[in-house]
Amino acid sequence: MQRIITIERFIIEREHEIPGATGEFSKLLTDIALAAKIVWREVSKAGLVDIIGSTGKVNISGDVVQKLDEFANEIFINVMQKGGHLCVMASEESKGLIEIPEELAKGKYVLVFDPLDGSSNIDVNVSIGSIFGIFRRVTPGGRGTEEDVLQPGRNLVAAGYVVYGSSTILVYTTGNGVHGFTLDPSIGEFLLSHENIRIPKKGDIYSVNEGYYERWDENMKKLVNYLKAEDKATGRPYKLRYVGTLVADFHRTLLYGGIFMYPGDSKNPEGKLRLIYEAAPLAYVVEKAGGRASNGFQNILDIKPTSLHQRTPLFIGSEEDVKLVEKFLQGKA
Ligand code: AHG
Ligand code: MN
Ligand code: MN
Ligand code: MN
């Protein structure tokens, strides 16, 4: 029987592992767990209250904004804004920087987040999630600026995600192992359930929206046809699993191994996923679990963002599978 330990207790016990961390960092992580619990509370009763459906608005990325997108965004902003640990925040659901009140903007951290991932799945009761990343500020003081947000994923000091699914799990890393906490609704606590998650070096599942096959370039088509071909010696065909919620597809990939892919295509050369709020935080998690994330040519963590909502193709999962993808996409297979 695994030791019963709450995420708050675990964060405090592990605080000494983070260079230069002060109680501030632990409080920041604890606040994120609180925001996740409040989003869970609304997600778990969506359909009973007027929280499903669309707001009729479109966000800066061109996504139709669901009511829960907006609600989750407001929860994260309200919970995180007044803690005094942040100098600036940025969200997939907010066009510009989310400013911290001047008198509170003395924090040395930066929070980037996707408050509600997989929002097209909300109304049909399929798993959805939240994604977050934490940077140290790079500007000297006062309110944070875009420069504090436009950092490569390599600079992250923590990242993680929540899957609101059959059970609700929060997975995060501060660089020393990747740990999962499952919400026990009866006591409202995230309890340690997956200590030190390691992704298998190779998997047998691929995850991509094959509906866009005709838009892919020849190398991408060759790759997926290779994964589907019968060849017992190399463990093929791979199984196909695609939820359509990044955090759900990623969480399965992290635990079972394999590869999640959201490639660029003829209609969207940079794909659909956002570098800052989706790709970089999950790339940080997967690398700390022994996996890899790439845009097909470069490690996701080495890409320096130039704009708040820029997209990137994303290939993420088991190290051997991502390297195989890179070989195909670079025409070397
Ligand atoms: P979000 O709801 O935050 O906008 O993210 C949706 C993303 C991601 O969750 C998922 O992998 C992808 O949309 C699915 O896109 P397709 O429907 O084009 O496959
Ligand atoms: Mn969206
Ligand atoms: Mn998303
Ligand atoms: Mn989202």
Care to describe what's here?
Homotetramer. This is Fructose-1,6-bisphosphatase class 1. Its main location: cytoplasm. The chain is an alpha+beta fold. The chain has two domains: 7-196, Fructose-1,6-Bisphosphatase, subunit A, domain 1 (Fructose-1,6-Bisphosphatase, Chain A, domain 1, 2-Layer Sandwich); 205-330, D-Maltodextrin-Binding Protein, domain 2 (3-Layer(aba) Sandwich), CATH 3.40.190.80. It has eight helices and 14 strands. The protein has helices at residues 7-14, 23-43, 67-81, 146-149, 218-228, 246-256, 275-288, 319-329, and strands spanning 54-58, 64-66, 86-91, 109-117, 128-136, 156-164, 168-173, 178-184, 189-194, 205-207, 239-240, 259-262, 292-294, 314-317. The strands form three sheets. A seven-stranded mixed beta sheet has the order 3-4-5-6-7-8-9, with helices on both faces. Strands 11-10-12-14-13 form a five-stranded mixed beta sheet, with helices on both faces. A hairpin with a 4-residue loop joins strand 7 (168-173) and strand 8. The radius of gyration is 19 Å and the shape is globular. The mean pLDDT is 94. One manganese (II) ion is lined by residues 63, 119.
